[in-house]
């Protein structure tokens, strides 16, 4: 059977765009390094600088992840997952460092009935209705 575009699950981007303000001199220094061939472009420089800082603090991050009980990486919560939680009479505490995705077919009512709290350091991908329903449970 051939999958139609409507049947395919939407692809979640593997990054999120951020905006930051830099002083003119810092921006000029970055442009100079790009011009001299050290980096492909401004984004390449900024990504490299961020990775270097994260590497520098990796031990502290690892300790915090363990202490806070965070799931690291990508975590997807399907409608079936949440329906099973509801059937078992259990509540879910979402604690993710990375990307947490609540499936698009999860209703706001199901989310409120099964998700006790949401802590996401990174990004939460859910429908606007589900995000609104869980707003008071987000930390």
Describe the model:
The protein has 6 helices and 3 strands. The protein has helices spanning 24-35, 42-56, 58-68, 79-88, 108-114, 128-134; strands spanning 71-77, 92-102, 115-125. Strands 1-2-3 form a 3-stranded parallel β-sheet, covered by helices on one side.
Cα(first) to Cα(last) distance is 43 Å
Percentage of residues in strands = 15-25%
Q: Secondary-structure element order, as H and E?
A: HHHEHEHEH
Helix-and-strand structural type? alpha/beta
Provide the helix percentage.
40-55%
Tag the structure with descriptive keywords.
139 residues, alpha/beta, 2 domains, three-stranded parallel sheet, 6 helices, elongated, disordered N terminus
Question: How is this structure best summarized?
Answer:
By secondary structure, this protein is an alpha/beta fold. The protein has helices at residues 24-35, 42-56, 58-68, 79-88, 108-114, 128-134, and strands spanning 71-77, 92-102, 115-125.
List the helices and strands and how they pair.
Layout: H1 24-35, H2 42-56, H3 58-68, E1 71-77, H4 79-88, E2 92-102, H5 108-114, E3 115-125, H6 128-134
Parallel strand pairs: 1-2, 2-3
Helix pairs in contact: 4-5, 5-6
């Amino acid at each position: 059977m051939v999958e139609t575009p409507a049947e395919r699950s939407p692809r979640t981007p593997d990054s999120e765009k951020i905006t930051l303000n830099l002083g003119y001199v810092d921006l000029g220094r970055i442009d100079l390094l790009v011009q001299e061939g050290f980096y492909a472009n401004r984004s390449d420089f900024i990504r490299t600088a961020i990775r270097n800082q994260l590497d520098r603090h990796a031990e502290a991050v690892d300790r915090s992840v363990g202490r806070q009980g965070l799931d690291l990486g990508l975590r997807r919560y399907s409608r079936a997952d949440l329906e099973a939680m509801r059937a078992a009479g259990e509540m879910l505490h979402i604690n993710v460092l990375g990307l947490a995705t609540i499936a698009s077919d999860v209703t706001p009512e199901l989310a409120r009935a099964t998700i006790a709290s949401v802590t996401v350091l990174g990004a939460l991908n859910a429908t606007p209705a589900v995000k609104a329903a869980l707003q008071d449970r987000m930390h």
